[in-house]
Design goal:
Blueprint: H1 3-13, H2 21-24, E1 30-31, E2 34-35, E3 47-58, E4 61-69, E5 80-81, E6 84-86, H3 93-105, E7 113-117, E8 121-123, E9 128-136, E10 150-157, H4 158-163, E11 168-175, E12 178-184, H5 195-214
Length: 216
C-alpha cells in the first residue's frame, strides 16, 4: 500500500479520539485468566516515558522500526521494543522520544516528522506510563545503534504485521510462581513481539486496517 497515503490518513486520525484498550487488549498478557494491562487508575508516581514508533517507506508500504534491547539495560532485557526511555525534568514527551531515538539509534532528530501520539499505556513491571509518539522518516535511515542499549535494529512492514504474521500464544515466566500467557507476533528469530510494545503496535495495526478498509 502507498506509504504517503497512510501517513496522510494517520496524521488526521491521530487528532481524533483513539480506540485505545479496544485495540490494545488482544495483545495484553494474561495471568490467571485476567488481562494484566486492563484500564486502571494509573499510580501518580508512575515514571513518565516516551517511545517512538517510527515509520519509513519500504518496498511493501510503511515499515515500522524495532530494537532488541541489550542485556545492559535496567528493564525488559532482550525484548523487542521501540526506542525510548524515561522523561527528564522539564522535558516534553515528544522531546524525550526524539532524544532517546537519537541516543539509541543515532537518528538525527530533525529528520523525524512527528505525526501524533497513540494511546498511552501503563506498564506495571517498570512502573511507567508509556507515551507513544508516531514519527515518519522520508527514507530508510542509517542506524548507529548504542551498543550499551541496543543489541539489534530491524523493521517489519505494517502490511505483513496486519495480514501475514499470525498471532500465537506462548507461556512466559515473568516472576516466581507466575506463568504468563503472552499473545505475540513471531517476527524475529531471537524473540517474539509481546507485552506493552505489542499492545501499542496492535492499536497502530488496527488503525492501518481501518485505513485499508476505507480504501477498498
Amino acid at each position: 500500500m502507498n506509504h504517503d497515503a497512510f501517513i496522510g490518513y494517520l496524521r488526521n486520525r491521530l487528532t481524533k479520539p483513539l480506540p485505545g484498550w479496544d485495540y490494545q487488549k488482544r495483545m495484553s498478557p494474561i495471568i490467571a485468566g485476567s488481562r494484566t494491562n486492563e484500564p486502571r487508575n494509573i499510580p501518580q508516581d508512575a515514571h513518565q516515558t516516551g517511545v517512538a514508533a517510527l515509520l519509513f517507506p519500504g518496498e511493501f508500504g510503511s515499515e515500522l522500526i524495532f530494537t532488541i534491547r541489550s542485556q545492559f539495560v535496567s528493564h525488559h532485557k532482550g525484548q523487542i521494543s521501540f526506542p525510548g526511555g524515561r522523561a527528564e525534568t522539564h522535558e516534553s514527551i515528544i522531546e524525550t522520544a526524539l532524544r532517546e531515538t537519537h541516543e539509541e539509534l543515532g537518528i538525527d532528530q530533525s529528520s523525524i516528522n512527528v505525526i501524533g501520539k497513540l494511546s498511552s499505556l501503563y506498564v506495571p513491571p517498570s512502573h511507567s506510563l508509556m507515551h507513544v509518539i508516531v514519527g515518519e522518516l522520508n527514507q530508510t535511515p542509517v542506524f548507529q545503534p548504542s551498543l550499551q542499549e541496543v543489541e539489534e535494529v530491524f523493521s517489519v512492514s505494517l502490511h505483513a504485521l496486519a495480514f501475514q504474521h499470525e498471532i500465537i500464544h506462548l507461556p512466559k515466566m515473568r516472576a516466581q510462581d507466575f506463568e504468563v500467557l503472552a499473545p505475540c507476533w513471531p517476527i524475529h528469530p531471537k524473540n517474539h513481539l509481546w507485552g506493552a510494545t505489542a499492545m501499542c503496535v496492535s492499536e497502530l495495526i488496527g488503525l492501518y486496517k481501518d485505513f485499508m478498509h476505507e480504501n477498498e
